[in-house]
Amino acid sequence: MRGFYNYAPLILAILGILVGLTGYYLDIILQIKSLLWAGIALMLSIVGFTTGRLIHRLDLSSHTDSVTGLWNRRYFCLRLAEEEARALRKKAPLCVAMIDIDDFKTINDKYGHAAGDLLLSDLAAIFKNNVQPTNIVARWGGDEFAIIFSGTSLLEAYAVMERIRHKIEARFSSSYGLAISAGVILLEPGQTLQDLLLTADRALYKAKAKKNLVITLAELPC
Q1: Is 59 considered catalytic here?
Q2: DSSP secondary structure string for all residues of 25-85
Q3: Residue 189's pLDDT is what?
Q4: Whether the predicted pLDDT of 4 surpasses 50
Q5: Do 98 and 134 have their domain in common?
Q6: Interior CA angle at 44 toward 43 and 49, to 5°?
Q7: Domain containing 42: what range?
Q8: Residue 192 has pLDDT above 70, yes or no
Q9: So what's the pLDDT on residue 5?
Q10: Has this prediction a pTM greater than 0.85?
């Protein structure tokens, strides 16, 4: 289904051409004017392409956060299920990072929500620019973000989050006093996605207790 949404313009345009060509060749067999069907084929391909673009845009908007331009929570959960299936099939590692902006409410109260939204957009760009294109970065809600690290070990995912944390601290600490906390978790054999997200939340809240910190599964109490 996701493939249809992504390629809807092309699929519907091709279907329009096929319908038109079918009529065209039927008219040749039945000795009826075929030029009419050539025009119908062109018209159907244009209508199909336009409709497909609309479907694609509607699907994209339903899965995109309007403030940051990142994927939203709904899309994140859809992709997490897909990536889990891929990881199990290929026996590859899969990690999830849950991220929170430390004391973001204070920043909003002090500088206003417009400034807060700009900061969210800036942070979103930093997250996106510091992970692989195959990784999924989403706004989880409010001042929380989430990242799916496909085919990435826990150590590698931790290193990426530490690099991001340092970049954010260097850029925003002096101006806004802004920093992030994060929990990074590896999907374990037999673990459900719900358990994975709950464990990631535990790691995040432990990191938030100290602030400006990245916590991994190995640092969680049993």
Answers
A1: no
A2: HHHHHHT--SHHHHHHHHHHHHHHHHHHHHHHHHHHHHTB-TTT-SB-HHHHHHHHHHHHH
A3: 87
A4: no
A5: yes
A6: 100
A7: 2-62
A8: yes
A9: 47
A10: no
